[in-house]
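stage 2 :: seqdesign
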């Protein structure tokens, strides 16, 4: 599994050689820290960083699929489709994961129309921003500089200024409305057949799963290792914060997922005969690839079931997972500024969600209103869905 996922990332990276790596850097600007992007990284390094931050997983590479589509890279599209078929429809998470913002996709389309040679558009842009002395020889390095120095972002005033430096075709692409973007769904590169399954309640795991103590401990160790390699500990912490019997400070202090499992066990949420909370958590997170780990100790367990009714976690926790998947770098930074959180110390959206959860911010009506007032209505709706 790990080898297959690593080989896929490498093969996909190889589809973006040379200057195309700078296009990847531009497209991933919302998801990775400036310090990482500023280095002369290979595409593989960038995708490894996405994996570490939980933006891609073994069974969710949706942002890579989107990149292949936006860049119109036929080789990358084929690589993604082949990989998804190898993973299997029953394991692949079609709904979660990171995605490219509407702003970044429109900006990318506009930038493709900028000419670089001679006295073309690039030369005019260098003069417009008074940076001829920096000797940028390609548009992607110039745009990275402008974004890094905050001369360009999704604010209306900076966009209007930037548009004045563009040729007519690029300007029209940049100024296409957000409404148009939302009316036209992003083309998908693959289709996964969804199998209708009846909603189920407890128990989620097969009956008679009374594990020996050593086997149960080994299962928790193996699942902990899986989370460290393929999952995200902050995401897991965020779900466990639903349980009032476990102090949030105790969850926060645990770095190893195995210690989180010990908290669940000591409070009676899991046992040798009941791992439903684990199954429910992994299902909500979309960690379907961990099924093989469970099967080694519980042969009757076949797979995680998409669409199964989860009763082990509150509606708020379910909403928070959807909400977190919608947050990208620029939105994370904005929310951090609202609450005086050091964005450089926030590893991923789930880390931020946990910080906000500690402050009871996620259930604060003012937080919802603030999201809606800052062009994050979809995020606000996701967070308050089904809540009174």
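stage 2 :: out
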């Amino acid at each position: 599994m790990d080898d297959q996922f690593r080989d896929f990332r490498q093969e996909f990276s190889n589809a973006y050689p040379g200057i195309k790596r700078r296009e990847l850097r531009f497209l991933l600007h919302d998801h990775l820290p400036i310090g990482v992007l500023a280095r002369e990284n290979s595409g593989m390094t960038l995708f490894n960083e996405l994996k570490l931050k939980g933006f891609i997983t073994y069974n969710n590479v949706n942002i890579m699929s989107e990149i292949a589509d936006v860049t119109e890279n036929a080789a990358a599209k084929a690589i993604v489709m082949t990989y998804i078929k190898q993973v299997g429809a029953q394991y692949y998470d079609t709904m979660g994961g990171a995605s490219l913002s509407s702003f970044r996709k429109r900006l990318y389309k506009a930038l493709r129309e900028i000419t670089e040679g001679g006295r073309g558009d690039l030369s005019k842009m260098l003069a417009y921003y008074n940076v001829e002395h920096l000797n940028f020889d390609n548009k992607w390095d110039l745009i990275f500089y402008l974004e890094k120095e905050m001369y360009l972002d999704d604010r209306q005033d900076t966009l209007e200024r930037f548009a004045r430096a563009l040729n007519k075709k690029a300007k029209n692409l940049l100024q296409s409305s957000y409404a148009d973007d939302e009316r036209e769904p992003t083309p998908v590169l693959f289709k996964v057949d969804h199998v209708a399954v009846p909603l189920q309640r407890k128990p989620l795991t097969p009956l008679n799963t009374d594990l020996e103590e050593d086997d149960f401990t080994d299962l928790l160790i193996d699942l902990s290792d899986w989370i460290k390699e393929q999952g995200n500990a902050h995401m897991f912490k965020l779900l466990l914060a639903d349980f009032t019997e476990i102090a949030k400070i105790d969850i926060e202090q645990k770095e190893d997922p195995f210690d989180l499992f010990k908290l669940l066990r000591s409070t009676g949420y899991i046992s040798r005969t009941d791992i439903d909370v684990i199954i429910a958590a992994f299902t909500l997170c979309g960690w379907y690839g961990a099924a093989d780990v469970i099967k080694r100790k519980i042969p009757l367990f076949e797979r995680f079931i998409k669409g199964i009714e989860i009763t082990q976690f509150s509606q708020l926790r379910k909403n928070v997972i959807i909400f977190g998947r919608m947050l990208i770098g620029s939105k994370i930074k904005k929310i951090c500024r609202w609450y005086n959180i050091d964005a450089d110390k926030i590893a991923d959206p789930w880390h931020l969600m946990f910080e906000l959860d500690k402050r009871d911010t996620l259930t604060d009506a003012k937080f919802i209103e603030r999201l809606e007032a800052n062009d994050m209505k979809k995020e606000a709706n996701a967070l308050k869905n089904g809540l009174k």
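stage 3 :: structure notes
- The radius of gyration is 22 Å.
- The chain has four domains: 2-87, 102-183, 213-297, 315-384.
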